[in-house]
Amino acid sequence: MAKTFLGKNFLLNSDTAKELYHQYAKELPIIDYHCHLSPQEIYENKKFRSITEAWLGGDHYKWRVMRACGVDEELITGGADDYDKFLAWAKVVPQLLGNPLYHWTHLELQRFFGIDELLNERTAPAIWEKVNALLQGEGFGARDLIKKSKVTVVCTTDDPADSLEYHFKIKELEDFGTKVLPSYRPDKFLEINRDTFKPWLTKLEAAAGKPIGSYGALLDALRERMEFFHEAGGRVSDHALDTLEYQETTLREVEAIFDKALKKGSVTPAEERKYKSYTMRFLGKEYAERGWAMQLHIHALRNTNSAMLKRLGPDTGYDAINDGPVAAALAGLLNALERDGALPKTILYSLNPNDYPALASIMGCFQGGGVPGKIQFGTAWWFNDNKDGMLEQMKTLANLGVLAQFIGMLTDSRSFLSYTRHEYFRRLLCDVLGDWVERGEAPKDFELLGTMVTDICHDNAKRYFAFPE
Ligand SMILES: O=C[C@H](O)[C@@H](O)[C@@H](O)[C@H](O)C(=O)O
């Protein structure tokens, strides 16, 4: 007999899976150690004027499928009326069977708004009324949604030059127990050949309160900003390495490359490679000294559509999966850090699932130092954040590493309604374990399995990051 769509046992296909999810995973709090939420919106407990703002305001996943269904851009990112945009989305949803958005959309309707109906053109008007009435009432501000989802830690993604004003303000709030901590993301200064480099230096000079005329001064300023992030509770960094190259070099060489970039505005690809390699080594060492975790997000192919980039800017749905070699460069970087005695806890993600075996096997070469799960193979990212992608990531990790040490799920989202993705992940994890039990490939030992579920869904991340109390 077919199961109920999104029913109590959604994605849970065995009795063991059901027991694991309902008894162990379901009620655990969430540690969201990587996302793109706005600290200002959290501080202000932002209320959404409509479900359109909450759902379609910044979600490039939805924008892409709307475009694929022929919706006019005016109704996606344009100035159309909120209701018209919502209706356009509602017409698209029934076409999304098989896409994770179909599940996420209905899970969010169920969990946050108590709506079990399917969203489509016919149900749209009533759903619009009901959801908007709730959003405008009490208990649906950004902070309320975080509290409802039992989130204990949120790590936002921040520029090293950021004042972290809202992180400090959030700490002063008396009625909000969730820790909102910054993550240090120094991409703009690693990308020495991009237009953002010089404006970014000016921003950093302002934050540091002094001029940055040399590579040494840059490193000093970055170190000071790291200290500032640390005081604000930051324990995580994040890097977008769309391509990963590694090359041995010296400080003197890189100092000269930096000077050249300041004078001429650009450097050669070989110089860029050296600059990035040395700088990553510097950063890795600083992270290690502070006990931070370093996240490497590898192989996004960004801004592929230049006309749309000009029109809408980055992160608007024109990114894809990159390819190219990764193994030697990654091993080279980790090796250099290890050799310097400076390898931090590291989380490896690739947008290209073909990289998974390389990542998960290289990871095994750098474990050690008595830190459980020191090098992590991060959860399925972005285009892989779906049922098959998550299963592939978990199974690769189980085959090539230690699944029991996995720090589990994050949202990586810009929406306060995305916490249901943790539920999705937890159900899948329990289903994998349950399936192994069904097949006689794992013992039906709930103490063993329950501990594993609790660890992966919560406790490992708590231990791994050791966020300040
Ligand atoms: O899930 C998708 C992600 O949030 C994606 O938008 C980010 O990974 C972003 O491009 C980034 O560079 O951090």
UniProtKB/TrEMBL annotation:
NCBIfam families: PRK02925.1 (NF002794). GO terms for biological process: D-galacturonate catabolic process; D-glucuronate catabolic process. The gene is uxaC. It holds the Pfam family UxaC. It comes from the Bacteria. The keyword Isomerase applies. It comes from Paenibacillus oralis. This is Uronate isomerase. It is an enzyme of class 5 (isomerase).
